[in-house]
Design brief:
325 residues, eight-stranded parallel beta barrel, two-stranded antiparallel sheet, 12 helices, 12 strands, binds glyoxylic acid, binds magnesium ion
Amino acid sequence: MSFHTVEQAPARLNRSELAVPGSAVQMFEKAAQSDADVIFLDLEDAVAPDDKAQARKNIIKALNEIDWGTKTMSVRINGLDTHYMYRDVVDVVEQAGARLDLIMIPKVGTAADVYAVDMMVTQIEDAMGFKKRIGFEHIIETALGMQNVNEIAAASKRNESLHFGVADYAASTRARTTIIGGVNPDYAVLTDPLEDATRATHWGDMWHYALARMVVAARANGLRPVDGPFGDFSDPEGYKAAAKRAAVLGCEGKWAIHPSQIALANEVMSPSEKEVTRAKRILEAMMEAAKQGKGAVSLDGRLIDYASIRQAEVLVEKAKQIAGV
Ligand code: GLV
Ligand code: MG
């Protein structure tokens, strides 16, 4: 291990994060009853400019009056390049800060963006006498944000998670795609002719680099990496595949832009019984090995060593966290 200690963000379940437009009050109660781990009430891109002021009022009222149970509650404010943003922060934190757990900052581009919001939130919390500190979740969804992802991840003690905003990221990098998340047939390689002279097309994951880069920045700073939206809510299999490949890379959760995606995210982002059982067997085998003075042994014909203990502990810890829901 490095001499540098990575401080971990507060442990929260973040398997599913449901997006709810602040203008869609009719959806609030259903969202509160859902199985989403985190809900973000949106003031940004799902709300039309003329509806922003009313959406802000709706969100403040809803945070104060609806029983959200033990859910982690977040509000996505508008970007720092808009004049909506300062009032989003001031009104929402002043009037509903007691029930707000997180603020989601979209299109964050530099560490200074984080600093600016931190300064505002700190002043409001102090003035209001709030005891609880509001955390930050950042959407990495611009070329600038991705370029500065390491500095952004380290920019505030409030930071809790980084989210991959695939739609805006595509727009910002001018990727030739108009779908939200998912795959693109043009991102593929063609094999050389096979024995029967045909050639096979292998589709790739065009978001791999961006997602992997964000995961590393998040983990190096003790934050949760979370995969963003998958627009085609009529394709549960496509959603699950996208969530699985994010989980395999190290993401803890994925957005749900439709209630039907909540269960899919919770399922994929929870370790399976089989995984947990194997993790527990690894821990037992390594305890036994330690008694015999060994640092590495074989289990089911595969090598396990001290690194296996750390991997297994991550899974067992996650299972405990979920069981505590
Ligand atoms: C989310 O905000 C996205 O742009 O994908
Ligand atoms: Mg976006």
